[in-house]
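Follow-up to my post from last week.
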Amino acid sequence: MKKINALMVGFLFLITVAGALFAESAGSIQIKGSDTMVNLNQGLAEVYMSKNPKAFIAVTGGGSGTGIASLLGGTCDIAASSRKMKDKEIKQAEAAGIEPKECTIALDGLAVVVNPANPVSNLTIDQLADIFTGKITNWKDVGGVNSEIVILSREVNSGTHVYFKEHVLRKGNEKGPEEFSPGALLMSSSQAIADEVSGNANAVGYYGIGYVSKKQKSIAVAKDKNSPYVLPTIDNVLNGTYPITRPLFFYTSSKPKESAKSFISFVLSDEGQKIVMDTDFVPLKKLK
Amino acid sequence: MTRDKRNQRIREFFIEKTISASGIASVVIVVLIFVFLLKDGLSLFKIESIQDFLSGKLWYPISDPPKFGILPLILGSIVVTAGATAISVPIGVASAIYIAEVSSPRIKEYLKAGVELLAAIPSVVLGFIGVVTLVPFVKQFFNLPTGLTAFSGSIMLAFMAMPTIVSIAEDALTAVPRSYREGALALGATKWQTIYKVTVPSAASGIVAAVMLGVGRVIGETMAVMMITGNAAVIPKSIFQPVRTLTATIAAEMGETVRGSDHFYALFAIGIVLFLITFFINMIADLYLHREKR
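User reply:
Got it. Predicted complex:
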């Protein structure tokens, strides 16, 4: 077993070196990870590249877990993640000789969406937890019509899935026992959830507010029965009244390339944060 | 011995060895794949008993503690495959009979080209078409809560299995000696009687092989099922429910797993199960073929 581990570390090291050499020679930055952040990263990369003609940034999705795994494998420079790194992943990073550095680049509100034909428009966090864990299975129990609820969720490789489970289903108690109902449909992308919701009056799903369009209706969410119902808008996320809000991260190795560093400082600048706002995410602070 | 002859002999030797090496290569590769599959897959059973793995009803791979029960996944694969087989076998075999026995040579050419074209459509494209057209249709037609069901997956996979079944069954039918048909017709049998009493029975082993290969194609198919079956890891009570298949689980989750985690091993263990299922199907086909030949 030890021998295999040693081999594995050696193998990872080789990949890291090879990846670093390759990337360095091409002068490019690889950003990989969160599907939620793909549009955001792409928007940021395009503006950055037009300002720095020598830079080349490649953006790919695949899920936060995928991004972090490839940061550890040395196949990307920046891992985009919509959740914090797990302890397990940090340990694996240390084993691979990488000290990951975390940087919050934007905020995101998770909208709970239903079909516009659905009469339900207000739900509390408790009700949401009961719906997604499968305790409530009919819309009439939350003030809707008498029909079965179709739960849509992201796949388990999605940071959105993990965040929603920990902060809505388990109400912040990350190690709680609550799970998504086994009957939940696991969709491969936010867009797939959006498409199913827009065509299915019984469906309920969740994703970053950037994906909400006129074909879906956002639910106004309240922390508890006595709190006001709040719609997921950029203002409500920024002033902290919308309860399902999360930070979005960039992870790099402890010694990122110069090009990656300057890209991140561009993202954090006022100009970068304005692009964050234009792609329907929430900037870290209110822009003038 | 002349120089030419010796050269020839050396050349012969190398050619022979190269060919036999290529022949053995495929077997060696299969063995290697199986060894690697076993090596990583069996690591799971240090923390989870085989019994719990195969008969567990909950699949929560990233929870703490994780639950690796693949019974819903196995049943999901079986339901989708059974549905696809039930649809594709009658249509596929009937279409093979039509192409081989009934149609005029001109129509035959068109049909064969059409079947080959169907085989050439990538599964992701079929999946996409399924999501856009079939899924809403199934939802409305059967008045279901959602159209992302095992049934939709079965229909789409039936399209995928059909080319395999049609072309192999058609080959088997064409290979039936002409004298058999002539004999039957000479004895006064009608064309239909000739087909179902003489031609089809004598091509039976080939048709079974065609069906088995079609089933093999369906059970291993990933992309289209992942897009249309809804991927809910529940034990299906009917074919009109969302299901999650073994293949879709591996494809959807392999991105998240970190090398060497329990989840990683669990996906490999699912790979072993899939491998065994296809191995079993091939073995049944093989046994049947040999029994027929005797």
